[in-house]
Each structure stands twice: as structure tokens, then as C-alpha cells.
Amino acid sequence: MKGNQEVIDTLNQLLTGELSAMDQYFVHGLMYEDWGLNELHTRISHESDDERVHAGKLVQRILFLEGTPDVASREPLNIGKNTQEMLQNDLNYEYQVADNLRKAIALCEQKQDYQTREILAVLLEETESDHMYWLEKQLGLIGRVGLQNYLQSMI
């Protein structure tokens, strides 16, 4: 099915964001593992896997719309130097992804591509209710119990 080129281009921009987030989570996960923060390593590795699934859904839709997926492009990564900075950088990335998804959903409405809109709505729900919520909760815990107590609970 020949899709709207503006929608395809937007899907490729979203794909770049998902792949970049996947890479950032991947690096942060390995850093947590290296530091012995096994709970964080496990969760962040899960987040990296989720981003790969999101990227896969975008690639499938781009292909369906007879576009060419751009799997080479990446946005700059924001690799943190400590746990709190890493969590905040990941949260900032998720905020950006959610904003981009909202704009893409609006474009799909405008172009009357309702199936793509539905796919993006699911990605937005997962981004907001899982990724962003969990990261906000972790930063809130650090604020309430202190960084050292938080880190101890992540060993």
C-alpha cells in the first residue's frame, strides 16, 4: 500500500529516536552491570529490548507503506556519568519520544492514516505508562530515600 511520504518520513524520524533510545539504554545497562547494580541492569536491559520492539513495529509499518526504513541514523546519545544523571537522561529521552509520537499521531489524523495512528497510539501508551512512569518513580525514590539508599536497593 503506497503511503503518504510525509507520514513515512515521520515514521523514519520516530525510528531514529527509538533506535537511539535503545542504544542509550544499552550503554546505561552495561554501566549498571559493571557497577554491580544488577536490579537497574535488568530493568534497563528490558527497556532497551522494548525500544527494539518499538523500532520493529515502525520498520514493519514503513515497509507496509512502501517506504524504506532508515535504520542507520541516530540522534546524539546522552550517556550519564552517575546513576541519577543516567536515569534523568533516559527520562528526558522518553519525554522527547512521547512528544514526537504525539506530533506524529496528529499528522496521521491530518493525513487520514488511521491505522498508523493506532500503531503510534500503542507506542505512546507504552512510553508513558511504562517507560516514563518507571523512570519518574526511580527519580522520586532517590529524592525521598536518598541516592545511597536507592543504590543499595539496586545491588
Automatic annotation (TrEMBL):
Q: Which one Pfam family would you cite for this protein?
A: Ferritin
Could you name the domain of life of the organism this protein comes from?
A: Bacteria
Enzyme class, top EC level, equals oxidoreductase
> InterPro entries attached here?
Bacterioferritin, Ferritin-like, Ferritin-like_diiron, Ferritin-like_SF, Ferritin_DPS_dom
Q: Which CDD domains match?
A: Bacterioferritin
Sorted alphabetically, the keyword list is: Heme, Ion transport, Iron, Iron storage, Iron transport, Metal-binding, Oxidoreductase, Transport
Per UniProt, residues of the Ferritin-like diiron domain are 1-146
State its Enzyme Commission number(s).
1.16.3.1
Q: Which Gene3D superfamilies match?
A: 1.20.1260.10
Q: Which reaction does it catalyse?
A: Fe(2+)(in) = Fe(2+)(out); 4 Fe(2+) + O2 + 4 H(+) = 4 Fe(3+) + 2 H2O
Its function? Answer: Iron-storage protein, whose ferroxidase center binds Fe(2+), oxidizes it using dioxygen to Fe(3+), and participates in the subsequent Fe(3+) oxide mineral core formation within the central cavity of the BFR protein shell.
**Family named by the database record:** Belongs to the bacterioferritin family.
State the protein's name.
Bacterioferritin
Tell me the lineage of the source organism.
Bacteria, Pseudomonadati, Pseudomonadota, Gammaproteobacteria, Alteromonadales
